[in-house]
């Protein structure tokens, strides 16, 4: 007796595999910190270490990019992770009453 409920089933009981399925890599997003004239350099380094798990030397380098160039890239992540990190930065900045801006853009 043939099982008609499974369109991939073959009459001998084996299952036909669909090899035409193509999986795509998820889109990646850059997380960027923006310079302002109020947020302290120490707080930016703290955020980079706490939220982005950067070592002190790398966090300082990114902070200097933010200070001198106006922006600094914190990392590249999938959308969900990037947007969570942006929200976490904004939460920490609001707690400490800093106007630090963080954004994401497609990589």
Structure notes:
This protein has 107 residues and is an alpha+beta fold. The protein has one domain: 2-Layer Sandwich (Ribosomal Protein L30, Chain: A), CATH 3.30.1390.10. Helix content is 39%, strand content 20%. It contains 3 helices and 3 strands. A 3-stranded antiparallel sheet has the order 2-1-3. Helix 1 packs across helix 2. The chain is elongated, with a radius of gyration of 23 Å. It starts with 27 loop residues before the first strand and ends with a strand. The mean pLDDT is 91.
Whole-number count of domains:
1
Structural class by sheet pairing and helices:
alpha+beta
CATH architectural arrangement: 2-Layer Sandwich
CA radius of gyration:
23 Å
Low-confidence stretches: none
Q: Provide the residue-averaged pLDDT.
A: 91
Ends apart, CA distance between termini? 53 Å
SSE succession: EHHEHE
Helix run count = 3
Features:
single chain, 3 strands, 107 residues, Ribosomal Protein L30, Chain: A, alpha+beta, 3-stranded antiparallel beta sheet
Task: Briefly characterize the structure.
The chain has 107 residues and is an alpha+beta fold.
Helix and strand layout, with pairings?
Elements: E1 28-34, H1 41-51, H2 56-69, E2 71-78, H3 79-95, E3 101-106
Antiparallel strand pairs: 1-2, 1-3
């Amino acid at each position: 007796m043939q099982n008609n409920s499974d369109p991939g089933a073959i009459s001998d009981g084996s299952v036909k595999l669909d090899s035409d399925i193509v999986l795509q890599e998820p889109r990646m997003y850059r997380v960027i910190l923006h310079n302002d004239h109020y947020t302290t350099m120490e707080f930016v380094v703290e955020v980079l270490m706490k939220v982005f798990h950067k070592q002190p030397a790398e966090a300082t380098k990114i902070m200097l990019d933010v200070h001198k160039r106006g922006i600094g890239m914190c990392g590249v992540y999938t959308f969900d992770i990037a947007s969570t990190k942006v929200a976490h930065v904004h939460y920490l900045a609001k707690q400490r009453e800093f106007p630090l801006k963080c954004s994401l853009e497609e990589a």
